[in-house]
Every structure is written in structure tokens, then in C-alpha cells.
Write a structure and sequence with these properties.
Blueprint: H1 6-25, E1 29-32, E2 40-44, E3 47-48, E4 54-57, E5 65-70, E6 88-98, E7 109-114, E8 144-149, E9 163-168, E10 175-177, E11 180-183, E12 186-189, E13 198-205, E14 210-217, E15 228-231, E16 244-250, E17 256-267, H2 304-338, H3 348-356, E18 364-365, H4 368-374, E19 383-387, E20 390-396, E21 403-409, H5 416-426, E22 438-444, E23 447-453, H6 461-464, H7 477-497, E24 501-503, E25 512-514, E26 520-522, E27 529-531, H8 554-557, H9 562-578, H10 592-601, H11 619-632, H12 643-650, H13 670-673, H14 691-694
Parallel strand pairs: 18-22
Antiparallel strand pairs: 1-17, 2-5, 3-4, 4-17, 5-16, 6-13, 6-17, 7-8, 7-16, 8-9, 9-10, 11-12, 13-14, 14-15, 19-20, 20-21, 21-23, 22-23, 24-27, 25-26
Helix pairs in contact: 7-9, 7-12, 9-11
Organism: Papaver atlanticum
Pfam families: Lectin_legB, Pkinase
Catalytic activity: L-threonyl-[protein] + ATP = O-phospho-L-threonyl-[protein] + ADP + H(+); L-seryl-[protein] + ATP = O-phospho-L-seryl-[protein] + ADP + H(+)
């Protein structure tokens, strides 16, 4: 017999290990009733608790990402024909719990099939931890996702509110709908953020080439009618090499937990059913303390006690009545000498009654003591800004430790109550990544306090006009262009993306706030007006706003509109690009809009660029922003583009010359651009408009309220 050499034993051992690992990685199915022993790869905030509950995100941090993928790969193409995708089936139970209960959530989650685990480079917020701004929508992603999203994102979604969608290589779903399920022939709504477990079935038939998605509460059998279906050949989506299956979730400003309780998956077959009784339990909210048991009544002594106790009670009541009378007398005298006129400070109850009919969901009602403690007694060291209506303080809420900005409206502001009601009625309901979130309010002795999401980088004007600046600036062009696009996205949502039209009426750099990632957030809705789509707004008694941003037609007609907001946005564009205030006179004794227009007329448009950029900018983007700013500031309101067209221009989906063929173009606009090249072409021929067409009739001095 031949002796086996040592090298051959080593080769045999390594081959055995390789075959074992191959069998593990190519496992065709699995079922986990609880994931404590699951073969998973986790990253981000994802973790598995001792009871087997998988949490993709938790309620500890905002802007979180969590991924959980089955560690082994799967072959989604037939070994015989690599162009034919195999069938697959999966079912899982999930739950989403928000810090605000079932009314508000911080983004959703998704089931994912991807070429690699972890989805490197993915972002939080509306990207659900799947993609980022640069790779979203690219066919090279090879990603299939079924999203369970709890927030409407105007950039990607077509369904208002929570929705379920099938995504291929990007977040613009190829098919999506509101979450419902069918039982006994009746369709019922399903709340994705109820905090209750919900079961999902996802099945793909490789022969019929049909993908089906079904949802139902765990106490309901699988409905016969799927919620979503998609007829699509996925052979080009799945790679011939291995693919991975798993889950992704992200959060935004609201602390949210995304849980997976059980998961079953199989290739070329039907996923094994989950044992619902064996699934781990969700964490329970803290229970209020149990009431103390009633104390046994003590027997009263029938002698001196019956005489002394009533006398003491009478004396205490008299002392209290005297103290109350003295207190109210002093307060009445103080109010007569110090309080503003009664008509300027409405009663808190009256304000609430007049608006309760218009508001479906109020933000949280904070106590005054809570806000006073959060701001260290409204100390000067927490003062971060002052405006026409009052002072803004930085604060930290004592219970949640949430950092907030608290706006304390002055009692002597004539429009203080109106501004408070406008902000509660508008921003209290709006939810968008480019709008500042209003967390709540407080009414205390005629004072109006509004609690906003705190923006760490404060407002944009502090970067454009630094107090101790030099010729250089730490706000480079890429950040400025990103801020411009974010502001445009928020304003587009106000004009066209919400259930009502919201006219902001005070778009300017000091009202564009910046979060920790330098994302733009439109704030200060104190002058906002709302009306229904297609209705139009009525005239106002005063022209409000900031000089330099006010459309020239406002002093004559006094009717705010989306076009007046677009004018202010145009002035904002020129302000960001030039680094100059719209309401100040510059070198040639002209307003900013007229000055930039004169530079264009002289074929020297880039002479208007902020010198602190040091020449470091993308010429095509700069020319586009300057020309678009002039177009938004057109004298004729009908000649200004809508914010939808502005978004197309900034995203590169249209150019200025295309407006003469669109519904947004005025009859005389074509002559202004037809003979000029695109704003993205050479800047030597940048004189697209005549100065008389692009410039307003002048900036009027008005009182800012």
C-alpha cells in the first residue's frame, strides 16, 4: 500500500473545509423564529437582543443606519441558464416603534437583495440606508428592495404618507401603494408605525416572472390578494455570481426603532411558515407607577380633637383667602402699569379655541417651567438670535435631553399672536427634510413660545457674512450649491408637494438654517399664508417681508403668491452666489438684482461672483445660478418659473432655453433666450437676457413686520 504523503493529507483537509463552507454559504433556505442564533452579518446600529429580537435601529440616536444580512450568499440564477432568474420566497415579521407613538416616525425600512452585504456608502434619512445621492437610480447597483416607508419624500415618492414600494436600483419605486390588507373580501388600512407586529410575504415566480408583496397583522392569515405585484424579468438585475439577502433601515429627526421578530427564506420553493407563538416579544413601554394603597382611616379621638381641628382649619382657610386677595390686588396694579394693551395680547384659551377647528394634530404642549429649565431661565448665554417678533434661545429639554431652539415672542409685538397661530397651523403639520421641524409650543401669561428642532450650524447668513471674515471663506461652492438645491426642494414642497399651498413670504439667507451635515432647512414660518390648491390667496393689509427680497408688484397689489416667493428665492440665489446682501447698494450704486443684470449685459457675468471663493467653483453651475436668479426676479410675475421648473434646472433635467417651449414660459421669454446658448455653455456668450427684462423696477423701502 502506498503511503499518503503529508502534503496530500493537507490538500485533502483544506478541500474538505472548502466544501463544508461552500455548503454553508449556498444554503438554499432557512427559518428563524427569533434571530438569536441566526447566521447574520450586522453593521451600523443593528443588534440582536438576548431574546432573539433583531433591532435595525434604536431610539438612542438620530440619522441612524442599520443593516442585517444573511452571511451566506445565494445564487439567483439557474446553473443551466444564467439568464433565467430562479424563484424565491420569503416571509418575515417586523414592527416600527416611534418616540411619538403612531402619529410620527423617522423613515422606514426595506427588505433587500444586493450584490454585497452592508451597502457601503448608503445614507440615512430618505435614502433608507440603501443608496446615496450619487448612486441612487444607477443600473450598476443591481439592488432589489421592497420598502416599508413611513414618510412621504417629495423627491422619490408618488404616494402621500406611509407606503409600500418595489424599488429597482433606486428609491423611485416602480410600483407603490398605501399599506392595506384584505380579509373576508374587505380591504382594511394598515398602520406601519402602530408598534404592532406585521407579517410580510414576498414571492417571485421565475417562470411567470412576477413579484408579489402581501402584508397583514400577525393575527390575520395571509390574504389571498397581494398588496403589490410587478411583472418584470429580473434576469438583468441579479448577477450570475452570488447575491445577499437582508434588511436595511434608517432614521431622521424622530427617534425610531425598527425590529425584525422572525424571518424565513427559500430558493425555488415556498418559504417555511413562521411559528408566531415562538417569536420574541417587543419591548414594553414604561408603565406608570401603581397607585399607593389607601391608608387605613385612623380613629378620631372624641374629645379635644373635635374642637381644635375645626378651629385650625378655619384659620388656615382665612389665611389663604387673605393671601390670594393680596396677590391678585398687587398683580392687578402691576398689570395696569407694565402690561401692554389688552388688545395686543389675546387670552391663551381664546387663541386655542379659534384654531382648534383648523388643526387635526397639535404638536406637543410644553409646560413653561420645562422650557424655563431647558434654557437656564432664558439666560443671556443661551440667546442665539433676535428678530422682529422676539428672541431665540438654545435649550436642552430636561426629560428627553433633546437640544431645541425656543422662540420667545415679545408681548408688545402687534402681530405676535397672528405669527404664533400661523406657525402652529403651518409648520406644525409640515414634514420634509428641508424644513425645520416644530416640536411644540407653550402659552404662558400672554407669552408665546415655540419649540423648534435645533440647527447646530444656525443660519446661512452667518457663513455668507462672517463677523470676522477675510477674503477666504469656509463655505465653498459645493456646499453653497448643495444648500441652494436643498432650499429649492423645501420651497417646492411648500408650493406643490403638500395638501395645501404654503406661501412662506420671507425666504432669505437668515431663514435658511443648517443642520449638522450642512443641509438646508427653511425655517421661521411666522409670515406664512395657506390656501387650497387652485384657490389663490387674498390681499393682505400690510406688505411684509425683508427689503431686497420683496417682489416689485407687492406694494401695488398686496397679494402674496407663489410668484412672490419665487422672486425672494431668486434674490436668495444671487445673494449666495455673490456674497452680497440684496437690500444693500453695491459698487455701482445699484441694487443687487440690477447690478448682476448689468454684469450680464456687459458679458462679464462672472465678475459678480463672491471673491471669497477665490475662483474655486464650477463655472457651469455658477452661470446657471446667476441666470436663474435673474429669471426668478423677473419684473413680470408670469415670467418667473415655478419651483418645479427650478428643481428641473438645478438637477440638470432642463435648461433655461427650454422654458420658451414650456407652459412656464411667458410669450416674450423666447426672444430673450432663443439666440443665446445654454447657460451651461461658454460664459463668454452669457448675456442671455436684456437688463431691462431681468431687472425689477427698483427695491422699495417697506416696514418689516
Amino acid at each position: 500500500m502506498r503511503t499518503v504523503a503529508k502534503g496530500e493529507w493537507t490538500l485533502f483537509f483544506n478541500l474538505s473545509i472548502f466544501l463544508f463552507l461552500l455548503l454553508v454559504d449556498c444554503k438554499a433556505d432557512f427559518v428563524y423564529n427569533g434571530l438569536e442564533d441566526a447566521y447574520l452579518t450586522l453593521d451600523g446600529a443593528a443588534q440582536v437582543a438576548d431574546n432573539g429580537l433583531l433591532s435595525l435601529t434604536d431610539q438612542k440616536n438620530r440619522y441612524e443606519i442599520g443593516h442585517a444580512f444573511f452571511s451566506g450568499p445565494f445564487l439567483f440564477k439557474n446553473n443551466v441558464s444564467t439568464t433565467t432568474p430562479v424563484s424565491f420566497s420569503t416571509t418575515f415579521v417586523f414592527a416600527i416603534i416611534s418616540e411619538y407613538g403612531s402619529n410620527l416616525s423617522g423613515q422606514g425600512m426595506a427588505f433587500v437583495i444586493a450584490p454585497q452585504r452592508g451597502l457601503p456608502g448608503a445614507q440615512a434619512n430618505q435614502y433608507l440606508g440603501l443608496f446615496n445621492d450619487s448612486n441612487n437610480g444607477k443600473s450598476t447597483n443591481h439592488v432589489l428592495a421592497v420598502e416599508l416607508d413611513t414618510v412621504y419624500n417629495v423627491e422619490f415618492d408618488t404616494v402621500m404618507g406611509p407606503h409600500v414600494g418595489i424599488d429597482i436600483d433606486g428609491l423611485s419605486s416602480v410600483n407603490s401603494t398605501s399599506p392595506t390588507y384584505t380579509t373576508n373580501g374587505v380591504s382594511k388600512n394598515l398602520n406601519l408605525i402602530s408598534g404592532e407586529p406585521i407579517q410580510v410575504w414576498i414571492e417571485y415566480d421565475g417562470i411567470d416572472k412576477e413579484l408579489r408583496v402581501t402584508l397583514a397583522p400577525i393575527n390575520v392569515s395571509k390574504p389571498n390578494v397581494p398588496l403589490l405585484s410587478l411583472s418584470r424579468d429580473l434576469s438583468n438585475l441579479f448577477l450570475s455570481s452570488s447575491m445577499y439577502v437582508g434588511f436595511s433601515a434608517s432614521t431622521q429627526t424622530v427617534l425610531t426603532s425598527h425590529y425584525i421578530l422572525g424571518w424565513s427564506f427559500t430558493i425555488d420553493g415556498k418559504a417555511q411558515p413562521l411559528s408566531l407563538s415562538d417569536l420574541p416579544k417587543l419591548p414594553q413601554p414604561p408603565q406608570p407607577p401603581a397607585p399607593e394603597p389607601p391608608q387605613p382611616k385612623k380613629k378620631k379621638k372624641m374629645n379635644l380633637v373635635l374642637i381644635v381641628v375645626p378651629i385650625i382649619i378655619v384659620l388656615i382657610v382665612l389665611a389663604l383667602l387673605i393671601s390670594i386677595c393680596v396677590y391678585y390686588k398687587r398683580r392687578r396694579n402691576r398689570n395696569r402699569t407694565e402690561a401692554p394693551p389688552a388688545e395686543l395680547v389675546p387670552e391663551p384659551r381664546e387663541m386655542i379655541d379659534t384654531t382648534s377647528r383648523e388643526l387635526n394634530n397639535w404638536p406637543r404642549n410644553f409646560s413653561y417651567n420645562e422650557l424655563k429649565e431647558a434654557t437656564k431661565g432664558f439666560s443671556e448665554e443661551e440667546d442665539i438670535g433676535r428678530g422682529g417678533f422676539g428672541t431665540v434661545y438654545r435649550g436642552v429639554l430636561p426629560n428627553s435631553k433633546l437640544q431645541v431652539a425656543i422662540k420667545k415672542v415679545s408681548c408688545d409685538a402687534r402681530q405676535g399672536s397672528k405669527q404664533f397661530l400661523a406657525e402652529i397651523a403651518s409648520i406644525g403639520k409640515l414634514r420634509h427634510r428641508n424644513l425645520v421641524t416644530l416640536f411644540g409650543y407653550c402659552v404662558h401669561e400672554g407669552q408665546l413660545l415655540l419649540v423648534y428642532e435645533f440647527m447646530p450650524n444656525l443660519s446661512l447668513d452667518k457663513f455668507i457674512y462672517p463677523k470676522r471674515g477675510s477674503l477666504s471663506s469656509n463655505l465653498d461652492w459645493s456646499k453653497r450649491f448643495h444648500i441652494i438645491k436643498g432650499t429649492a426642494s423645501g420651497l417646492y414642497y411648500l408650493h406643490q408637494g403638500w395638501e395645501q399651498v404654503v406661501i412662506h413670504r420671507d425666504i432669505k439667507s437668515s431663514n435658511v438654517l443648517l443642520d449638522a451635515q450642512m443641509n438646508a432647512r427653511i425655517g421661521d414660518f411666522g409670515l406664512a399664508k395657506l390656501y387650497d390648491h387652485g384657490a389663490g390667496s387674498g390681499p393682505t393689509s400690510r406688505v411684509v417681508g425683508t427689503p431686497g427680497y420683496i417682489a416689485p408688484e407687492m406694494p401695488q397689489i398686496g397679494i402674496p403668491s407663489t410668484e412672490t416667493d419665487v422672486y425672494a428665492f431668486g434674490a436668495f440665489l444671487l445673494e449666495v452666489a455673490t456674497g452680497r446682501r440684496p437690500n444693500l447698494v453695491v459698487e455701482r450704486g445699484l441694487g443687487l438684482v440690477n447690478w448682476v443684470s448689468s454684469c450680464m449685459k456687459e458679458n462679464a457675468l462672472l465678475n459678480a461672483v463672491d471673491p471669497r471663493l477665490g475662483g474655486e467653483y464650477v463655472v457651469q453651475e455658477m452661470v446657471l445660478v446667476l441666470k436663474l436668479g435673474l429669471l426668478c426676479c423677473h419684473n413680470n410675475p408670469a415670467s418667473r418659473p415655478s419651483m418645479f421648473k427650478v428643481m428641473q434646472l438645478l438637477d440638470g433635467d432642463a435648461n433655461l432655453r427650454s422654458l420658451d417651449r414650456s407652459d412656464d414660459a411667458p410669450s416674450d421669454f423666447g426672444t430673450a433666450v432663443r439666440e443665446s446658448p445654454s447657460p451651461l455653455s461658454s460664459v463668454n456668450t452669457a448675456s442671455t437676457f436684456s437688463a431691462s427684462e431681468a431687472s425689477p423696477s427698483g427695491i422699495r423701502e417697506v416696514v418689516t413686520y
